[in-house]
Amino acid sequence: MVSKNQIKLITSLQQKKYRVANQLFFAEGVKVIQELLQSNFELEHLYTLQNDFEEVEASKRTLINEADLKKISALATPNTCLAVFKIPVEKKIIESGLIVALDSVRDPGNLGTILRLCDWFGIKQLLCSKETVDIYNPKVVQATMGSIARVNVNYIDLNVFISQSKLAVFGTFMDGENIYKTDLPEEGIVIMGNEANGISKELEKSINNRLTIPRFGDIQKTESLNVATATAIILSEFRRG
What we know:
By secondary structure, the chain is α/β, with parallel strands linked by helices. 32% of the residues lie in helices and 22% in strands.
């Protein structure tokens, strides 16, 4: 059985202030939980409808009924399991290779998808401005589909970091150079901006390589691409070389 105090704690973790206070977050679904269990994330407790996850010690595993699972789930249709993990200490920034930096990306689905893209394209380091949505937001964790376990994520002052970095800095703008006709390096920092406002004016000053994904439609009235979609195209072009 799950106690009222456990229910209260888990539901509180849907809010950032309680995740920070307790240094805990939760994940839902067999795939995501299995990925996290096989990583360096430390399990606090697992709640499941079935007698599965036999690799988890009994003291950290609780059989739960559907009614209680619905109470603690952040999903409209709960999965079969939910696990609470400890938030790890941020690792040192990996300042080499290709780095993705996010400037005030607010949508959890976008952040989760971008983290999956980083995993897919072999990006080891994702930098987030402090205004970017929390990586441990349940919707972000769900959208990463386990990739959160394989990409190093740091929340920093991007303006300070970018101004001090020796790597080439790239940003996407409507008036940038056609990405399909640009020689792209193997190393550098690629900055993706806010969904509504793009890259901030202050950060723009530090970007010495302006790129654009050209529109090919006849009418060309579409104002912009979704930030996750744009990230996929850009990373694909960088990896294509």
